[in-house]
Amino acid sequence: MAATTVLAFAGGCLLVACTGEAAVQADPSENGSPSATPPSNPGGEPTTDTGNDPTTSSAPLINPVDYWEENPDKAPPHLAGAELLVNEKLTGPASLTLPEETSNSGTLILSLTCAEPARYRVQLIDENAVPGAYTGADDCSGGAVVSYETPPIEKTAVPTELTTDIPAGIEYFVTVYGVPR
Prior knowledge:
Layout: E1 4-5, E2 25-27, E3 33-35, E4 47-48, H1 64-70, E5 83-91, E6 94-97, E7 105-114, E8 120-126, E9 131-137, E10 146-149, E11 159-165, E12 171-180
Antiparallel strand pairs: 1-7, 2-3, 4-10, 5-12, 6-11, 7-10, 7-12, 8-9, 8-11
């Protein structure tokens, strides 16, 4: 199964590659405590392209940027006008410094895709090392590109780092777009 996941998603995906279980998001009112409830903010629902069969056990690694450029009708609603902040092909657990332009974002669109089944977690961390929104699932593979738009970002808690927890040896794309305030 090769799919896509984005930060916090109700359906078992995270940042660009996942399946259909429930993911978790930090509730800002609880200082990063997880909540199994999908976000209620407008645009916070994940978007999934089901053009490929997500039951396929082996699929190519999908780059969300390329996929959405080739299939704009399947891109998240707020992608038009959003700024590409991160699009990295990685292997295993990682920590990425988000660019300074992240501070101009009102929300972030996150996606994670991998070509083989793997449990994963993606976490945003602010400049004070306070964990923020996160998501994860038991499988980040499949044939769909899934994304999640974070709740509104407070100017006092702008994410500066993104961490991925995924098994060593698993290749994946992690993609982040900033939606202007």
